[in-house]
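Give me the fold.
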Amino acid sequence: MRWLVRFGYDGSALHGWARQPGLRTVEGEILRGLVRRGVVSSAPRARLEVASRTDRGVSAVGNALALSTERSGPILLRALNGISSEMFFTAAAPIPEEFRVRGAVRRVYRYFEPAESHDIDRWQVTARLFVGKVDVRSLGRGLPSHTAVWRTVEAVDVERQGPLFQIEIRAPSFVWGMVRKIVGALRSVEQGQLSTDELAAALAGKSRLTLPMAEPERLLLWEVEYALPWEHRWTGPNRHQLRWWRSMRESLSVRSALLGAFAQGVTTSDTRRQSGSEP
């Protein structure tokens, strides 16, 4: 049986998707887990394919993979969710042999940017330049330098979510680094390092830019959408996943408190020095 599986993971401690000797990666962890839990007899038997090969530090909620196993849907999901506490396999559907996991209807990414000192109106106006059929030579790597490479971008929405900007980008497909370079372009325009005319010309295929790439740790693959419905859904999290989630939340709370105390201490010490109360 061939299965399509929806899955997510915290990428902060993982070195991207592809297996690498001596490093923890998403693909490596999954293949080892499939064999360890008896889902497949050997890694090659899984015939593992993925919709989006995320980079080091990038996380996902709704990536998708295809694999082969004799397990049924609910049993498969239960086994997959025992692979790693930082990975969540949330839905599955049977697929025919000819199904291609990379042939998704669309992919949705979200990038989170600290909102402080940013002009949301400027970001929203610049974001509209990316919508439509655009030349992505300035937004990728390893692309032809003299021939336009066209992709259709359905939407680039910038919204404020508390202390953060959420930049959501929807498109049928992306080239490598595209989302992070879009964010880099939004920053560059706001900072006056790039004009909207220069950016528009590049997206229209008239020129090519060298754009900075935003940090991977703030990027989240939100969804990979297909025309078929999900037949089985995971009812978790299990106790190991829940324990991991609570531990991570507690660590973040403690880290936030430590940084707050550190900032307060630095400010207090600086104030004392300026007032002459300390040598």
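The chain has a mean pLDDT of 94.
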